[in-house]
Protein 1
Amino acid sequence: MSPETSSPTSDSTHFGFQQVPLAEKAERVRGVFDSVAKNYDVMNDLMSLGIHRLWKAWVIAQAGVRAGWQVLDLAGGTGDLAAAFARQVGAQGQVVLADINDKMLSVGRDRLLDKGLSNRIQFAQVNAECLPFANNSFHLMTMAFGLRNVTDKSAALASMLRCLKPGGRLLVLEFSEVRLPLLRQLYDLYSFQILPRLGEWVAKDADSYRYLAESIRMHPNQPTLQAMMEQAGFEQCQYYNLSGGIVAVHSGYKC
């Protein structure tokens, strides 16, 4: 299987290793996250042995959020990044936690309300391909583990660029192509043999976690995604491999 490298150009696209009608992918992805929302945080800790928290902490440190900033956390799920940014923007700033999935957004809203951060966070159910925000709205956008589930990634990147302020930055944290051969073999074994069993054991849903493993393999690799960001109009694009390329953080600016 080769990863998607551009916008969909036919009536079908990939859903994991399957080909599905283009119009059906978003609904199928919604079904996956409807299923996993309740156990999302527990499964993240189990799947990554807690390392996802270090990856997200690295993104938060890289972001360099300042008081008064406007921040959009896309595919923000249960709100790990949004919570950190809400503390950093201060009373004059604003964070928008956005997700296409209402159940994931509901879980995130409950968590952040419990943390007393509701006065600095707005919640929005949005499609990254057609963001409903004004031009030049945000100093920073982040998207953690969401871009690979977007049907038209090029449209999403263009929409993000439009909504960033001049000088604003996009940070995308996503599973990527493992660079070390031995680690790649172990990672494949884990992804396709162990991960679905964890999904069945904890979330009673092996199929959704099988899809998540497959979707990683279909996602553009590091240089391909960087090229897509450059084609969308981002500048100073670069990426950083974490954990041997299991994940990568892509960075780009609107000039």
Protein 2
Amino acid sequence: MLDRARNALNRWVLDHVPTDWVDYVVSNTMTEFNRWANGFMWTYEHQWLLEQVREEAPGVKTFVFLPNQHWRGFTPGQHAPVHVTIDGQRHQRSYSLGRQPRGRVSITVKRQAQGKVSNWLHDEMKPGQCLTVEPPRGRFVHQGQSKLLLLCAGSGVTPGHAMVSHWMGLPSGERPDVQVMLQFHSQPDVIGAKDWRTWRQAGLRVTTCLSQAPSEPVPDGVSTRLDAAQLRQHVSDVAERDVYLCGPEGFMQQMINDLQALGVDARRIHTERFTAPTQCAAQAAAQAVPLSDLEGAEVVFSHLNTSIALTQADQGKTLLQLAQARGIALESGCQQGACGTCKLTLHEGAVSGNTLGSAVYLCTAYPASRAVVLGA
């Protein structure tokens, strides 16, 4: 009863009072008692209050939250680190963010067979509970290009859905030229099916590909796996578009190969990864073949207009460590090669370790040529 009353009060305050005023009042009345009585607002942390859980597809749920006054929104395509405590141990996972009505925010979580956090969220997270989160991160956001292709598969549809939701809320003359191709296992697995259907009726070009042949005709979709032939058929001007790609690792690698075969410049393929950190780190370690002679080699961060000269003492350091050792401020997150916060684009040279197309995950990648040019 007390929890329900407190949560109702929190919702009313954040729905009716500007967050700047809430922040001012809370920061000037911060006491241990207030923090104990209402840790959702009387806190220095970003807190989310769960309001709704929706079944999106088999094994997939969307969690809709009310953020506290510290939250300042996000750019569509970004993710946020979420903290949960399970059996006394604190765990962190990053989830792409969805924008919901009335200032709410959502994450869409697919249950993983061995996923400790995803299973906890599916089984234990109930409306009225709170999560501790960190501010949004990531560069998988629209960079202003006028012609775009979104390629998404499975739960990798979430950042693409957030981008499209934003664009469809703009006047038609302010939207980029967007085409969307989605891949799911079967029709019931389509995440956000109602939204995609609504947007398609409003004029958005959306093609849904199903890897499992359906028993009946697919509305506005094709009954085959997304591949180079589908790209060639449905996106005749694919080489003119910037591509935003997100999904399972195998899907993304295949799409990168197909896109490059169709003439798409690797630097115009923007990726977001959904792979467990341990898998990414293991992959990076197995593939890494760092440059053996670092003396005099150079790494250029073109977006910062700065460069660093390497010495043999830098041997064994990742690109992120090389930059940090010289005081270069680069964004970083999990530092295990999964979240993509530190990701940059390789413009010249070669790197080894954790890469995906031209995307370089600095925390688990190493220079592999005498000159390396990285940028946004």
Protein 3
Amino acid sequence: MRRPLDISPASVAEFWQGLRLGLLVGIAALVLVLPPGERNEQIAQAAQAARPPAATIAAAALPAAPSPPPIERALDFGHERPSAEARRLAAWVVNAADNGRQPFAIIDKTGARVYLFRPSGRLIGAAPVLLGFARGDDNAPGIGQKTLAQIRPGERTTPAGRHVAKPGRNALGHDVLWVDYDAAVSMHRVRSTDPRERRVARLASPSARDNRISYGCINLPSAFFDQHFWPHFGNTQSIVYILPESKPLLTVFPSLATSTHGA
């Protein structure tokens, strides 16, 4: 097997030291051979060539950046009692390290509940959520280009699946986590812009049947958003997993079919 090239800072410094020594020997030879008129110019050029680049010196002086420590992963729902599908999905995420080093959320649409996790799989918190008015697991075509007034009731779905989410602000300047930016689906504080919708009361209700009211976004209780959600999801990319309600679980998350964890 061919040995890999050693490009460590120590080997780089050793290389330049050897090259410099060789050039200095050459300079000494020039002193003996060249005429006096050319000697000074050749010596200056050789000395300049013997000087290693500044970037090489800096690279040799700086130690290599340490690798981040491994994450000790273990699923922990705390005192929560999630559905079997939510637990199965969470177990797969943790065991497969599908979230990488990022926090993740699991949204159970049937139970109208969100579970927030640290990258390790430890629960941050859970809360009821408001979801899209219409049942379904896909975005309506072109939904992100429509105004709210143009979106029909049957198009107001919360899309199932794995979403790479990023924090940002909406058109009103409010903090949101963009779950699907192109479809304008986000997670944000509950807003009571229309008192007739009774959004705050719906969140407080013990039943999940009245939590379908939004245009597709996921509404969180304001206090939960500020105390638990935004401190962990507001400054970094995260992964949001939304369980399906119409499609089979394995259709939306086919990797679960080969997993033996959390079944």
